[in-house]
Amino acid sequence: MIGLGTIINVIAIIAGSTIGMIVKKGIPESMQRSVMKTLGIAVMFIGISGVLQEMLVITEDGISTQGTMLMIISLVLGTVIGELCRIEARLESAGDKLKKLKLFSGSNPHFTEGFVTATLVVSIGAMSIIGSFNDGLGIGPDILITKSILDFISTMIFASALGAGVICSIIPMGIYQGALTVLARFAQPLVEGTTIISDLSLVGSVLIFAVGINLFAEKSIKVGNMLPSLLIPIIYGIIKTFIG
């Protein structure tokens, strides 16, 4: 069943967030802050491993790198577009609106932060991109199922520290992964034989690293405004395919 991976992912986030909110009452605030910083370090290393996996190439002559210029150009152009569109502010505004719903009345002041942070963590990255494409191409939902386990653990920790906003990350994540899954059905001829997915994974891993910095340093980089960076490798890959 195409789309099964995203459905399982949504269920895992709901379960993890719910458990986190239940457990939260028994966790001291000082411990919550320590856990968040620890999780930030873990997320940074996940991002670093993803970057190295896509950038480093082992050849007979040793180790070389690839995709460096595309990564830099993607991040710069994407950030400029994101700043002009004020994506981070729009994400925060969406979180504020969700917080006003009766369902979340009485939520803690970290609701919006939890929504934005969890959305960025569960929506960007290699597993989200490659897993959605594999699901859409009929290869299987295995990667998204693995991602669901990781998201279950991470959202449980996030929710224990940031509250109910974390569970709302299922909305943008579901739309994003669902769209990628559907897109894969139509984009297969364009993607096959190109480096689009690899380039997307590289840029996505850099954004994951930036999210880790935010978790550790308590918000300093507007990662939401960097999201358009993910569009640049796609555009580049399509142009490269048609030009030859």
Could you walk me through the main structural features you see in this protein, from its secondary elements to its overall organization?
There is one protein chain. The protein has one domain (4-58, 65-239). Helix 4 (87-99) crosses helix 5. It has helices at 4-24, 29-55, 68-85, 87-99, 111-123, 126-136, 142-162, 170-191, 196-217, 231-243; strands at 56-59, 62-65. It has a two-stranded antiparallel sheet. With 244 residues, it is mainly α.
Summarize the structure.
The protein has 244 residues and is mainly alpha-helical. 74% of the residues lie in helices and 3% in strands. It has one domain.
Chart the SSEs and their pairings.
Layout: H1 4-24, H2 29-55, E1 56-59, E2 62-65, H3 68-85, H4 87-99, H5 111-123, H6 126-136, H7 142-162, H8 170-191, H9 196-217, H10 231-243
Antiparallel strand pairs: 1-2
Search tags:
244 residues, mainly alpha, two-stranded antiparallel ribbon, 74% helix, globular
- The total beta strand count reads 2
Biggest sheet: strand arrangement: 1-2
How many DSSP helices?
A: 10
Range of strand content: under 5%
Mean pLDDT: 85
What is the helix/strand order? HHEEHHHHHHHH
Tell me the Rg in angstroms: 18 Å
Give the tally of structural domains.
Answer: 1
| Secondary structure category | mainly alpha
> How far apart are the first and last residues' alpha carbons, in Å?
35 Å
How many strands, which pairing sense, and closed or not: the largest β-sheet? 2 strands, antiparallel
